[in-house]
Fold this protein.
Amino acid sequence: MDGLTWFGLFAVTAMLVTYALESRSHGWILAFAGACLLGSAYGFLQGAWPFGVVEAIWSLVAARRWWLLRR
């Protein structure tokens, strides 16, 4: 596997783990948003721009959810 594939594996694994832990703390929601940004970067780097766009939007949704819940 090349470096880009390893990066993608890390990104989607981080998304899975942080999503599973979201109910434990609001910080995990923010971590999920960050993991989605990593997934978005991976999508753009590998040339799958629709995946990159959707992951970027998902990151914004998660960040907004964190913002509203942190109060």
Summary: The chain is about 85% helix and 0% strand. The longest helix spans residues 26-46.
